[in-house]
Amino acid sequence: MVTGHARLGLARNAVALFFMMLDLDDGVFVDAVAAAAGFAACAEARDLALTREAHRRVAAARVALDVVAWNALVDMYAKCGDVAAARRRFRGMPVTKTVVS
Predict the structure, then answer these.
(1) 3-state SS record for the chain
(2) What is the rounded distance in angstroms from the CA atom of residue 17 to the CA atom of residue 23?
(3) For a surface tag, which of 13, 34, 54, 87 has the fewest beta carbons within 10 Å of its beta carbon?
(4) 78-89 burial by CB neighbour count: b if 16+ within 10 A, else e?
């Protein structure tokens, strides 16, 4: 749902859905895939306040991010104009970096 709204150009609606998912108490589990979709929607919205709020909420929910979600997080900050935060997130990735030849 989040990705679909974002692809239709409804990034703010996508972010609102993502925030609703994070706020639900009825067993809805937000995983790395959902986090990546939410981060991508924030990147499409180009709204730094939404970016920071999404990052805060995902961290508070203790969502375990995978490489795709971490890359979406970096991309989100960069597209919203906070390149310094994007760089910090990139350097702080807890995953092993590999060189692909």
Answers:
(1) CHHHHHHCCCHHHHHHHHHHHHHCCCCCCCCHHHHHHHHHHHHHHCCHHHHHHHHHHHHHCCCCCCHHHHHHHHHHHHHCCCHHHHHHHHHCCCCCCCCCC
(2) 10
(3) 87
(4) bbbebeebbeeb
Tokens 């409804």 belong to residue: 10
pLDDT tens per residue across span 39-86: 999 999 999 999 999 999 999 999 999 999 999 999 999 999 999 999
Say if 101 falls within a structural domain. Answer: no
Residue holding tokens 């990735």?
A: 93
Domain range for residue 71? 2-91
Instruction: Report the domain count for the chain.
Output: 1
Q: Considering the domain boundaries, does residue 12 fall inside one?
A: yes
Token representation of residue 75: 């991309």
C-alpha distances out from residue 55 to 6, 41, 99, Å: 17, 12, 27
